[in-house]
Amino acid sequence: VECRPQWDDVTACVPSTTVNHLAILPCIEQYDGQYYDTEYNITKACLPNGTWDNYTNYTDCLDHPLEMEGGGVKDWEIFIFLLGYTVSIITLLVAIFIFLYFR
Fold it and tell me: CB-based contacts of 93: which residues, under 8 Å, 6+ apart?
């Protein structure tokens, strides 16, 4: 008797596993913009009655996120982005005011 393959509704397709054993698969490389070390594992228990435990254990993956060099948006990039849009909005408002004043 074994537990049938199952999608865990998050990121893992858990393979079939014999009862009273853990299904073990490597951590996903990337989820929601965060990268994880694939040297660690996701586990899910196959119960004695041939059904899966409700809990998929991602603890090892979550405890070992990878810091990607050069990846992601830097704080100064966000500052320049916001500064540019702020200057643009202020300039637009001044232009609309001048347009309506001399109309």
Answer: none
For residue 40, pLDDT beyond 80: yes
Q: What is the mean pLDDT of residues 37-53?
A: 93
Residue 82: predicted pLDDT: 95
E strands in the chain: 2-3, 6-7, 13-14, 17-18, 22-26, 30-31, 34-36, 41-46, 52-57, 65-66
* Spatial separation of the C-alpha atoms in residues 23 and 43, rounded to whole Å: 5
Contact yes or no for 53/47 (Cβ under 8 A): yes
pLDDT of residue 96: 97
